[in-house]
Structure formats: C-alpha cells, structure tokens
Amino acid sequence: MNQPVWDRFVRVFHWSLVSCVVLNQFVLEAGETPHEWVGYTASALVLARIVWGFVGSRHARFSDFFPTPARLARHVRALARGEHPQYAGHNPLGAVMMLALMGLILSLGVTGWMQTTDTWFGEEWLMELHEWLANGLLLAAGLHAAAAIVMGRLERVHLVRAMITGFKRSY
Predict the structure, then answer these.
(1) What is the CATH number of the domain that holds 123?
(2) pTM, rounded to two decimals
(3) In the prediction, which pLDDT does 101 show?
(4) For the chain, how many structural domains are there in total?
C-alpha cells in the first residue's frame, strides 16, 4: 500500500491541534490570557475540521469513515479473529477516537469560555469539570498515540508517518 490519504488541511489541523494541547497542558498557565487564546484556537481548529469533514477530500469526509454500529461491529469481530483489515482512512475505532478527541476539545473550549463570563466566573464545579475534561483529553490523546503505533505495527503501515507525509506506506 502506498496511497495518498491525508490532505494538507488534515495534517496541518492535526499537528496544530497537538501543539495547542501540549501548550495548554504543559507550557501555559491555566486561566491566563495565552492559555485562553490557545484554547479558542484549538476550538476553532476543531470547528474548521468539522466543516472539512463535509467538504474536504475523500478520506477527510465523515462519510468515508463515520463509525456506524455496523462498521464498528465488523471491525471488532475482525480484530477478535486476529485479522487486521486495511482501511485507506480511519478504521472505525480510530474514527470513534477522533470524534471523542474533537468532542473533548470543544467541551474544553465551552467550559473554558464559560469561566470568563460574569455568570459562571469562579464556579467551582465548572473549574473541576474543565480540569476533568483536560485530564480526559490527555488520557484519550495518549491512548490515540499508542493505538496509532500499535495498530501501525499490526497492520504493517506507517500510520504516524502518514500524518506527516499524507501517504500510507506499508513496511
């Protein structure tokens, strides 16, 4: 397999989002203006990716990989049999993870913004929810990265390299 998969928009989106998450989790001070703006940038990136999921290139479109129950069931059954089906774009479990990550980032954007408003400023439950979402994002992102490495080995495809070059290549 040596085929184009991820267009430039998807790759720039992915690595820009990774940068936003790393900055907000490990570099910037929570609650400070740069943290807020990086969070808004991450939310805007996700919103742009959602639009691209309807108008973008073939493998960027949700219709190409949306994880329907039937697609998920087929994929999980194949994995249980020790099979590793090849997918040009996201496999169904990868699609679930991608959608979960985007949902977490949008939830962080909303809860972060809410904390800047007069109505919600200083609400302890909201600050705790925001922190829980951030920890959930870190956990999900770690699982996503580990799965990309493990599934890449099992499927014998350079998944991480594909998100850099745009091409999926077999080992």
Answers:
(1) 1.20.950.20
(2) 0.93
(3) 98
(4) 1
